[in-house]
Amino acid sequence: MDLFDTTQLALQRASQGVSLRQRTIAENLANANTAGYRRRDVEFKGALSDAMAGGKSALEAVTFSPEMDRTAPLRGDGSNVDMDKEQSTMAQVGLEYDALVQIMKTRMQIMRTAITGQ
């Protein structure tokens, strides 16, 4: 019997995906004025959802990676980073990360209570 269930593993993978997305958005912001730079993003929710359907082994194997956004309109300098959108997305991703941390914390408190009776 595993101490951590697939939900806990899914939460860990989700936090990894959110963290990678935060770093990727930070790179976009850092390169906003770099001519020719193309924004990147991490779409982890679909991969995570598919992995959850496949069970623990699929969750353990799921990976996320930044991908170039080819849909955003290019500016005159060849870049497609929109500072306002990136900052808005960064705020949203920060809230997602905070929510995941709170859920994991609550689950750990429940486990601690079940083990210790306190």
TrEMBL record:
Location of the Flagellar basal body rod protein N-terminal domain: 19-38
Q: Which PANTHER family match?
A: FLAGELLAR BASAL BODY ROD PROTEIN FLGB, FLAGELLAR PROTEIN
Localization, UniProt: Bacterial flagellum basal body
| Keywords of this entry | Bacterial flagellum, Cell projection, Cilium, Flagellum
Keyword ATP-binding applies: no
Q: What does this protein do?
A: Structural component of flagellum, the bacterial motility apparatus. Part of the rod structure of flagellar basal body.
Protein known as: Flagellar basal body rod protein FlgB
| UniProt keyword annotation of Nucleus present | no
Q: Which organism is it from?
A: Svornostia abyssi
Which InterPro entries does the record associate with it?
A: Flag_bb_rod_N, Flagellar_basal_body_rod_CS, FlgB
| Classification via Pfam families | Flg_bb_rod
Q: How does it assemble?
A: The basal body constitutes a major portion of the flagellar organelle and consists of a number of rings mounted on a central rod.
Task: Describe the family membership recorded for this protein in Swiss-Prot or TrEMBL.
Answer: Belongs to the flagella basal body rod proteins family.
Region (Disordered) spans which residues?
Answer: 66-85
What PROSITE patterns does the annotation carry? FLAGELLA_BB_ROD
